[in-house]
């Protein structure tokens, strides 16, 4: 049972990766490729945030802090010219994990709205460091001069197709890692904390340490998302770490689903599509987005993906009695 | 002695909730704590399970003074509790919740590389489900269980930790008469199977007199009487305070 679950997920991941890689060869428009890289970067951000929101019940408003730290750390490392892309990525993940450990050690001791606010405070703190430390970060202009992409292991990310495939692979690796966490004993212990922290404590679960653990993992995953975006836009900007970026990630979770594993990705696709089409027709796209989100939150009272899953299950349930009757008749007939 | 409470005292501001309570609980005993509302029964449980810290006194659990230890440390030493209002995990099924609890007991909560449910935890969880008679509800979401089954699951979660001492805060709270007897029958059954030390708070005198080996009556935070069912039944203090007279009347007198 447990083995087959892993195997099934691995097969799904490989198929999904193959489809993702095949898309730009079938539909050759570069804008589609760009759209998908955006969705992957922001989708990864939302997925990593959902490890806190949906899995552990920790609503962080400051998750973009690790997104932006990933983008800047990676950009600065690459600009230094001393390291290759994979090494820079590993250092960035480790560095952001350390940052998340320090911030998390303070944040996870607080509950509910207080946790949300202190994560927001830390994010704004990091955002203002980026704005004010102009000599290092370029201030509000962002990291200037582009991010070099020296070839490694025969892979040249200067080629936009190669860059796309690289992003798709990194994205899928992260999804597989998060899926494993989601389905592991660790993940189910986090569900105990989400549902009833007091009871979890009385079952011998060290809540603070568990929360800190997932906070660090989620931060490290968010840094990968930041790196993908930095690689793609060849730069890093303070907006990556503004509160609106965290807000967008929360929107994506709300739009998709917090309880379905791939919900945030669905939310990311929906939000990006919505933005894309709405901004064609009106410059007030923020207003339209707000209305759509209000409609979904108040109308469906859950994510779009939740709604679809429930609808399918209800249809199945409605059909099930009919089929059992049918088989019963068939059996009688056979007798 | 599995659990020994010595001169336990707790004040909340001006309220003296626990007054110089000393009780011994032998290993493998089944003990009832009774008393009128506000007698300090739940506070007593909160003090020994580490939720509150007493102002003075000792709690010797399995040879060790546990006053000042966190509730988490006390749980890990083997003292578990079930709650007056069932404390469960609404979005998990009975099976998932119990398996996750067993995993916590096995100290495998930090396992990333295997998939939930791990077989060895699953087996223990199934044993508990069978012991509680929840087989046909194993895959029901906890939030969809009946009140009585939620209380059972709460106890099951405690059992998953293989406790040495189990504290049950009103296992029959909110149940009808028939359901009460079924519940208490199950409590007695698992006590005899698991051979652990069980303390329970109960309001129903018939139940208490029927199953408890030893009864401690609390009133205003102090021990009013201690003894077997027969001794308690004949105790004049208890009769005056609690039993013989009208329940509400005795409370009213007490409050003036």
Task: Name the descriptors.
heterodimer, A: 335 residues, mainly alpha, 2 domains, disordered C terminus, B: 256 residues, alpha/beta, Rossmann fold, six-stranded mixed beta sheet, four-stranded antiparallel beta sheet
Q: Could you give a quick summary of the protein structure above?
A:
The complex is a heterodimer of chains A (335) and B (256). Chain A is mainly alpha-helical and 335 residues long. Chain A has 14 helices and no strands.
Characterise this structure:
The complex is a heterodimer of chains A (335) and B (256). Chain A is an all-alpha fold and 335 residues long. Chain A is built from 14 helices and no strands. Chain A folds into two domains: 240 residues, no CATH class; 80 residues, no CATH class. With 256 residues, chain B is α/β, with parallel strands linked by helices. Chain B folds into two domains: 177 residues, Rossmann fold; 56 residues, no CATH class. In chain B, strands 6-7-8-3-9-10 form a six-stranded mixed beta sheet, sandwiched between helices. Chain B has a four-stranded antiparallel beta sheet with strand order 2-1-4-5, with helices on one face. The C terminus of chain B is likely disordered. Chains A and B meet through helix 1, helix 7, helix 8 and helix 9 of A and helix 2 and helix 3 of B.
What's the helix and strand layout?
The complex is a heterodimer of chains A (335) and B (256).
Chain A: H1 2-26, H2 30-56, H3 64-80, H4 85-107, H5 112-132, H6 134-137, H7 160-183, H8 185-195, H9 197-201, H10 207-233, H11 243-255, H12 263-281, H13 285-300, H14 304-334
Helix pairs in contact in A: 1-7, 2-7, 2-10, 2-11, 2-12, 3-4, 3-5, 3-10, 4-10, 7-8, 7-10, 8-10, 11-12, 12-13
Chain B: E1 3-12, E2 15-25, E3 30-34, H1 41-48, E4 56-61, E5 64-65, H2 71-77, E6 79-82, H3 94-105, H4 119-132, H5 147-159, E7 165-169, H6 177-194, E8 197-201, H7 205-211, E9 214-219, E10 222-227, H8 229-234, H9 236-241, H10 247-255
Parallel strand pairs in B: 3-8, 3-9, 6-7, 7-8
Antiparallel strand pairs in B: 1-2, 1-4, 4-5, 9-10
Helix pairs in contact in B: 3-4, 3-5
């Amino acid at each position: 049972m447990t083995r087959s679950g892993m195997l099934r997920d691995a097969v799904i991941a490989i198929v999904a990766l193959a489809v993702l890689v095949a898309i730009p060869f079938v539909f050759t428009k570069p804008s589609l490729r760009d759209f998908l890289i955006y969705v992957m970067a922001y989708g990864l951000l939302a997925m990593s945030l959902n490890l806190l929101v949906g899995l552990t019940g920790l609503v962080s408003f400051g998750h973009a802090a690790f997104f932006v730290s990933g983008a800047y750390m990676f950009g600065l490392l690459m600009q230094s010219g001393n390291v290759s892309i994979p090494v820079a990525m590993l250092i960035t993940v480790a560095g952001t994990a350390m940052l998340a450990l320090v911030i998390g050690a303070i944040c996870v001791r607080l509950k509910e709205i207080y946790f949300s606010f202190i994560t927001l405070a830390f994010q704004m703190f990091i955002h203002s460091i980026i704005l004010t430390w102009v000599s290092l970060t370029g201030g509000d202009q962002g990291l200037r001069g582009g991010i070099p992409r020296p070839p490694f292991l025969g892979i040249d990310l200067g080629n936009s197709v190669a860059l796309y495939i690289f992003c798709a692979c990194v994205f899928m690796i992260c999804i597989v890692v998060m899926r494993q966490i989601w389905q592991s004993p660790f993940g189910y212990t986090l569900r105990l904390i989400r549902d009833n922290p007091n009871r979890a404590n009385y079952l011998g679960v060290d809540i603070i340490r568990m929360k800190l653990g997932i906070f660090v993992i989620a931060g490290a995953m968010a840094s990968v998302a930041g790196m993908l975006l930095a690689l793609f836009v060849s730069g890093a900007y303070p907006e990556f770490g503004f509160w609106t970026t965290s807000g967008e990630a929360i929107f994506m979770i709300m739009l998709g689903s917090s309880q379905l594993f791939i919900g945030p990705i669905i939310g990311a696709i929906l939000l990006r599509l919505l933005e894309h089409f709405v901004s064609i027709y009106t410059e007030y796209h923020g207003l339209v987005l707000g209305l759509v989100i209000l409609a979904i939150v108040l109308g469906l009272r859950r994510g779009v993906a939740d709604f679809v899953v429930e609808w399918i299950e209800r249809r199945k349930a409605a059909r099930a009695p009919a089929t059992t009757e049918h088989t019963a008749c068939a059996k009688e007939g056979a007798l | 002695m599995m659990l020994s409470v010595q001169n336990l005292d707790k004040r909340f501001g001006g309220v003296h909730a626990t007054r110089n309570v000393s009780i011994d609980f032998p290993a493998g005993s089944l003990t009832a704590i009774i008393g009128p509302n506000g007698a300090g029964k739940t506070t007593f449980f909160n003090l020994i399970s580490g939720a509150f810290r007493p102002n003075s006194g000792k709690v010797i659990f399995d040879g060790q003074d546990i006053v000042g230890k966190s509730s988490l440390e006390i749980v890990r030493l083997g003292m578990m509790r079930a709650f007056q209002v069932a404390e469960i995990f609404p979005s998990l099924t009975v099976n998932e919740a119990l398996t996750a609890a067993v995993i916590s007991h096995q100290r495998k909560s930090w396992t990333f590389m295997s998939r939930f449910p791990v077989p060895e935890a699953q087996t223990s969880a199934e044993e508990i489900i069978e012991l509680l008679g929840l087989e046909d509800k194993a895959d029901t979401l906890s939030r969809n269980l009946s009140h009585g089954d939620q209380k059972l699951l709460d106890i099951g979660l405690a059992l998953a930790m293989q406790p040495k001492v189990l504290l049950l805060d009103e296992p029959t709270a909110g149940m009808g008469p028939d359901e009460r007897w079924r519940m208490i029958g199950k409590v007695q059954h698992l006590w005899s199977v698991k051979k652990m030390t069980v303390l329970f708070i109960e309001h129903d005198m018939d139940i208490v007199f029927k199953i408890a080996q030893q009864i401690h009556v609390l009133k205003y935070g102090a021990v009013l009487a201690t003894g077997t069912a027969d001794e308690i039944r004949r105790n004049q203090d208890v009769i005056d305070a609690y039993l013989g007279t009208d329940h509400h009347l005795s409370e009213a007198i007490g409050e003036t």
